[in-house]
Specification:
The structure is a homodimer. By secondary structure, chain A is mainly α. Chain A is built from ten helices and no strands. Chain A binds a DNA duplex through loops.
Chain lengths: 225, 225
Amino acid sequence: MTASSVSRRRLARGTLSRQGIVEAALGLLDEEGPEALTFARLGSALDASTTAVYRHFSSRDEIIVALAEELDRISLDGYEPAEDWRDSLRDLAWRAWRTASEHPAAASAAMHRTTRGVHELRAVDAVLEAVHQAGLRGEETAMSYAVYAHLVLSVCCQHATRLVSMATEGEEGWVQVYHPTDPAAYPYAVQAAAHLLAIDHAEVFRRQVELVIGDIEARAGRAQA
Amino acid sequence: MTASSVSRRRLARGTLSRQGIVEAALGLLDEEGPEALTFARLGSALDASTTAVYRHFSSRDEIIVALAEELDRISLDGYEPAEDWRDSLRDLAWRAWRTASEHPAAASAAMHRTTRGVHELRAVDAVLEAVHQAGLRGEETAMSYAVYAHLVLSVCCQHATRLVSMATEGEEGWVQVYHPTDPAAYPYAVQAAAHLLAIDHAEVFRRQVELVIGDIEARAGRAQA
DNA sequence: ACCTGAACACCGTTCAAGT
DNA sequence: ACCTGAACACCGTTCAAGT
């Protein structure tokens, strides 16, 4: 009674689509982790042959890029700029964080990729709009965009990777690190061990995002003065 | 006259070592990119059989973790705390950036991993020492450590990944993004296109690091007052 | 036009056999 | 104790054949 042995009928001609394949890939990654994204698993999840997906994607890498676009789409779904540009940047940052938290295997594999797609472009435009609304212009807008966007994407991507490795290896580890063979050589690490284990990663991200927002605020104030 | 067909003699008993294997792996990644790290390539680079490495590492993943430790070792080589804690944090940040720039394929694959090793511990201790020197204590030290360390590692890891994909695909891409089919829908992106293409990623990193240092400074001042 | 099934080169890993 | 070579299961990809 395995899933792959149930239906052996030939698939109708137009059953498969890029969007359907991407959704199946995302479901596979969500439920079975990063190793699950293979043409064989994807095929049987779609009740299709191992090679059917090649009609719609020319390589595994192209599926990863499509997944990145799908994560952008999910993140931005329902987004509207806030009245205050600070709230727009907060909203966008936490949307990325939430997507990474809810789809860690997909985010870990895809979030660092440039898609050149429409949803990525929407995200870029949304951040630039907020920075523009803050009062920055020209080159300064681009720099602040990059400071914000690189930080948010990098940290969320790493957060996703951490969630995946926690699911795979079990627990955070680190324990060994803070019981080194020669504790006297690493006094600060030994002393901070308990606090480091108790760190709230979301709170760390919040502080990082607020730092960038504060910086944009300061630069905008200077520009107006 | 391929490299693998030259020497076919059996390797002496103690020729292979963990450090030698790690160095060969790093060389392979540096010279041939992320696809080059396979047991077969590693074996022939070491003039050994495909499976010889298994005597020293029990899986491919264990090699990746050892590479992460090696990158920590390379980064910290010769590090001494500066008089001013700000310069210590700057030094540590740019060491990570330089390592990511010089070994992009290895950094992209390994830099996000926790090693539980001695060089990672040295790095943690060095950052904590600087934050302590700034004047923070207890939980606040741990939080500021995390804000700094997560940012530096995440951004450098993403920088490495970007370098790898530039080498693979050629050029930054993005061009397509900033010539969208419907430019009117993304006015801010279209307007900022030229500036976005001209962004200096090192300057972005510099600003991110200075933001965190400024934040630690402000918190330390508040704590003392 | 789209899906299937056989086939190929490659990869991580295991294990019995050599020295 | 450490290295080799055959073997296995799996994976991405290609391609001729079906409908």
